[in-house]
Design a protein that fits this description.
By secondary structure, the protein is of the alpha/beta class. Helix content is about 30%, strand content about 20%. It has 13 helices and 17 strands. Strands 1, 2, 3, 4, 5, 15, 16 and 17 form an 8-stranded mixed beta sheet that branches. A 4-stranded parallel beta sheet has the order 11-12-13-14, sandwiched between helices. About 50% of the residues are buried. Bound molecules: zinc ion (ZN).
Length: about 425
């Protein structure tokens, strides 16, 4: 539903669009196929490859000029409201809402047409911005609004100090009784996703390190019970084996990090690989280890805190998971000062270099598997008849150049729900290459 003031023609009013002369990455295939794609309303009506022509009559024909057409990217670990460099707890809600709305546009501008909230920096930021996006007032990806990071006293996100009041990101609790109320309250407010911080982390070695489990089992049991009872899904921060096993036992769909998984937790993940998606967010670990010097974390400090070790261990664990067919997804934890929104696709290179993923496996994880983690495996993440028309067009072949998404000039077109967020731009690189051949 578009707002009446919106000047662009919405998918509801516009006639069919036929993209011709495009090379299609369908979300799962190992190579591109030349073809045509017909859009009707907000859905993909037909896809033709192998020289088949779709009927031109009554459709607006858009010549793709040999560009790549592929599904929009799907981020299963998105902190839309995270920003920097200021302490996020100290940003007043009014400013923070505007920042979140601005970042929603940045995310969509980089070809990400859907995202799962991974923790909201204030209780209603995700909810409010999602509602504005869905109403058509502001641009942004399809979005599942999350709770803040829900953590126990002394867990990741609790940086309080006695006698020193300051606002922080997380929502703290202790005990099942408190958590029951908190999760019910967020469901009432309208979240889609509940985020639980089960394990500790290197960021807080003095309180609760990554190999320690912060949240007790009775707490995880109650939090997941209420979320499931109200039809919500869950994310969790879980680095060590115990926290991963807890996430599996209580049906938490998206497991963030999982970097210290042992053989037993890997066996369990493999046995349940259709129910869980792993988002390691190694890009954050990498950037913290080597690139956060300007923000007070020198490489020496990062190494002392365990980030270099964590990166190596995490990469080894992910390689084992990949061999077992466990779904590992890129993106995650962009939005910190040293990992700004819009640079998320740096993860493509990390997956190639650190985890040995093939380019098509990376793009499949960023589209078709992302759609599974988003909860719409039969409607998003593939260029397929009947699927929602969330598409991007690229000047180049993303299977050959994993950095294409990092430069917005390479993103020639962005369509979400059948509407153009970015109308087709002139193609340069592909044309130049064709002329040279
Ligand atoms: Zn996160």
């Amino acid at each position: 539903m578009m707002h009446a003031d919106q000047p662009a023609l919405s998918a509801e009013k516009r006639g069919p669009i036929l993209f011709t002369n495009v090379r299609i990455f369908d979300g799962t295939a190992k190579a591109l196929s030349a073809g045509e794609v017909l859009i009707q309303g907000n859905r993909i009506k037909k896809v033709a490859t192998g020289g088949e022509k779709l009927p031109r009559a009554s459709a607006e024909v858009v010549d793709g000029g040999g560009a790549t057409l592929m599904p929009g990217l799907i981020n299963a670990h998105c902190h839309m409201s995270y920003t920097g460099p200021q302490n996020m707890g100290h940003i007043p809600p009014e400013e923070h809402t505007l920042i979140t709305a601005r970042q929603a546009k940045i995310i969509l501008d980089h070809g990400m047409t859907a995202a799962v909230g991974a923790g909201s920096a204030k209780p209603r930021l995700d909810i409010a911005v999602r509602n504005e996006i869905n109403a058509g007032y502001i641009p942004g990806p399809r979005y599942l609004a999350a709770t803040p990071e829900i953590t126990v006293t002394g867990g990741l996100g609790d940086s309080r100090q006695l006698h020193m009041h300051h606002n922080e990101l997380a929502h703290y609790f202790d005990g099942p009784h408190e958590l029951r109320r908190i999760v019910r309250e967020y469901c009432r407010e309208g979240v889609d996703v509940v985020k639980l911080m089960i394990s500790g982390d290197h960021l807080i070695p003095n309180f609760c390190d990554a190999d320690q489990t912060a949240m007790d089992e009775d707490e995880v049991a109650v939090g997941t019970h209420i979320a499931h009872q109200r039809g919500r899904t869950l994310n969790c921060h879980a680095r060590n084996p115990e926290s991963i096993k807890r996430a599996i036992k209580y049906g938490i769909q998206r497991i963030y990090h999982a970097t210290l998984a042992d053989e037993e937790s890997l066996d369990l993940l493999e046995a349940n690989k259709d129910k869980h998606w792993i988002v390691p967010a190694l890009g954050f670990t990498y950037a913290t280890a080597y690139e956060a010097g300007d923000f007070g974390i020198s490489p020496a400090t990062a190494e002392k805190w365990g980030f270099v070790d964590e990166l190596a261990k995490g990469a080894e664990t992910m390689k084992k998971m990949h061999k077992r067919g466990i779904r590992i997804l890129p993106f995650g934890d962009y939005g910190f000062p040293w990992t700004p929104h819009g640079t998320d696709t740096r993860d493509f290179r990390h997956f190639q270099k650190m985890l040995g993923f093939k380019p098509y496996e990376i793009l499949r994880a960023a589209t078709a598997y992302g759609a599974e983690a988003f909860g719409k495996p039969n409607e998003l993440g593939q260029v397929k008849a009947g699927y929602l028309a969330d598409l991007v067009m690229l000047d180049g072949n993303p299977l050959e150049d994993l950095d294409l998404f990092l430069d917005q000039a390479n993103i020639l077109m962005i369509m979400k729900d059948g509407d153009f967020h970015k109308a087709l731009q002139p193609i340069r690189k592909v044309r130049a290459r064709q002329a040279a051949e």
